[in-house]
Write a structure and sequence with these properties.
Chain lengths: 131, 288
């Protein structure tokens, strides 16, 4: 069975979805991703869906789930490159994906993740200094 | 073949003269059309009408095709000249009087025959008149549809204010059809220009009801999903009151009273600022 590759970039994970998502693929991605986050103790997950042209409510929910799962594992999720048609479809389906951060492209997404991770690190430093 | 067709053919010239007189009394618009043109049109139609009646008495038949086409042409040209729909229908209806006159002269003394013939010819002319009005109205509807389409395109411009900042000044009432166009053009502009911030300005939107607000929220959410931030500006005091009274939730949306305010926070968001070049070190360096 096909699997979507998950690339490790520093303390972030990079997932680019380049094939049509079917339900099984989405489920396996969820599993693989949580495994990888736990394994590498990643702080950020970037999902690029710029080549994704068709979405349904299931895929939308999957994205929301991945974000929620990552958050539980202390990793930020950024979804990048959503096509206008996909965005309109999701909104019309009533899925505004409130828990997900978004960016226009992978570059911006990485910047965003670095910002979050950097901020967290600073916060930890401050905590450490107080002790 | 009934008698009236033959009579019309034999008295074609008399009818034309009578008709011209009738037109000059009833619907003459010398400000819009000159006599020669009118006479030429009338005689051409009368000829087509006479020819057609020799073959058939059904206006939808092939025999009347030429007459129908001609009337369509007349309706079109008169619409363009500024005639009203009733004036256009009078062009055909005023032909009744001279035709009836000829029939009356022909059937002196035979009342039942006269009525039958008047009915046949009157019915025919009425149908042709209705057809002309239909054609005129259809033309007008086409014009309206075209204008609506043009307005739709004209009224949804997406402008670039700065690198990474788009503005969408909305003007006029928002309905679902228009919002769809607005949404699509904004989202594709965001992708094209790679913009992080979009400002929707509703200064030109006369009323905001729940439907319009919902459309706006949808657009803003879709833009956010794509990774662009959306600000709403140009909210007039009256509209702010309406929004609160209707219980519309705009908590997740960054709103500003003026476009300039929204532009300011957009620049801040991008880490830029507008400064006065007076006393600014960079400007001073340039002067020297």
């Amino acid at each position: 069975m096909d699997r979507i590759p998950i690339l490790k970039v520093g303390d972030c994970l990079l997932v680019t979805i380049q094939v049509d998502m079917h339900d099984e693929l989405a489920m396996s991605l969820q599993e693989d991703l949580t495994m990888q986050i736990a394994k590498h103790a990643s702080r950020g997950v970037l999902i690029d869906i710029s080549s994704l042209e068709i979405v349904d409510s299931f895929i939308g929910r999957m994205l929301a789930n991945i974000a929620a799962m990552s958050r539980v594992l202390d990793a930020q999720t950024v979804v990048t490159g959503m096509q206008p048609a996909v965005a309109i479809t999701l909104v019309e389906l009533g899925m505004s994906l409130p828990g997900i951060r978004t960016a226009l492209n992978v570059e911006r997404g990485m910047e965003l993740l670095r910002e979050f991770i950097g901020r967290d690190a600073e916060a930890e430093d401050v905590d450490g200094a107080e002790e | 073949m009934s008698v009236f067709q033959q009579i019309v053919r034999t008295h074609e010239t008399a009818i034309l003269n009578g008709w011209m007189k009738e037109i000059s009394i009833a619907t003459r618009r010398s400000d819009l059309m000159n006599d020669a043109e009118m006479r030429q049109q009338s005689s051409e139609f009368l000829h087509l009408f006479t020819e057609a009646t020799q073959v058939s008495s059904e206006v939808r038949s092939d025999a009347f095709a030429a007459a129908r086409e001609f009337l369509k042409g007349v309706a079109k040209s008169r619409m363009e000249q500024g005639f009203t729909a009733s004036e256009i229908s009078m062009f055909v209806l005023s032909l009744k009087q001279p035709v009836f006159n000829v029939l009356r002269d022909e059937f002196k003394g035979d009342a039942s025959k006269l009525v039958t013939e008047i009915w046949t010819s009157g019915d025919l002319l009425d149908k042709l008149a209705m057809m002309t009005v239909d054609a005129a109205i259809e033309l007008r509807e086409q014009t309206i549809a075209r204008q609506q389409e043009e307005m739709m395109e004209l009224s949804t411009p997406v402008v670039k204010l700065w690198d990474g900042v788009l503005a969408l000044p909305l003007i006029g009432t928002l309905d679902s059809g228009r919002t769809q166009v607005v949404m699509e053009s904004l989202l594709s502009a965001i992708v094209e220009t790679n913009s992080q911030v979009a400002i929707i300005d509703i200064t030109g939107v006369p009323t905001v009801d729940t439907l319009v607000a919902q459309h706006l929220i949808k657009t803003i959410t879709a833009a956010r999903l794509m990774g662009a931030e959306c600000y709403l500006s140009g909210i007039r005091p009256a509209i702010a009151q309406t929004i609160v009274h209707l219980g519309i939730d705009l908590v997740d949306v960054q709103t500003k009273a003026k476009l300039s305010d929204a532009f300011k926070i957009a620049l801040t968001r991008l880490g830029k600022a507008v400064v006065s070049i007076k006393n600014h070190p960079a400007a001073r360096a340039e002067e020297q």
